[in-house]
Design a protein that fits this description.
Number of domains: 1
Largest sheet: 2 strands, antiparallel
Oligomer: single chain
Number of helices: 3
Strand content: 5-15%
Length: 76
């Protein structure tokens, strides 16, 4: 990981294979984007659902887990 600390990116390291370097880059980028979202005030999905589901359940809304992007329908 000395290469990472020094910022050497032009030549691939010999102790980490090309595919592994790609996975490391993707993981690092994903973590960077997540930190940036959190700094902007975006909640994690679990936290968002924890805050939003109880009010929906109180009014008797039915949430269909098969279609997470659809609007909840009122329970009959």
């Amino acid at each position: 990981m000395q290469r990472e600390k020094l910022g050497i990116k032009t030549i691939g390291s010999i102790d980490v294979k090309k595919r592994a370097r790609k996975v490391l880059r993707q993981r690092k980028d994903r973590m960077y984007r997540e930190r940036k979202r959190r700094a902007g005030g975006v909640l994690a999905r679990a936290e968002y659902l924890a805050r939003s589901l109880p009010p929906l359940q109180q009014i008797g809304a039915k949430i269909d887990s098969a279609t997470p992007n659809s609007y909840p329908e009122a329970a009959n």
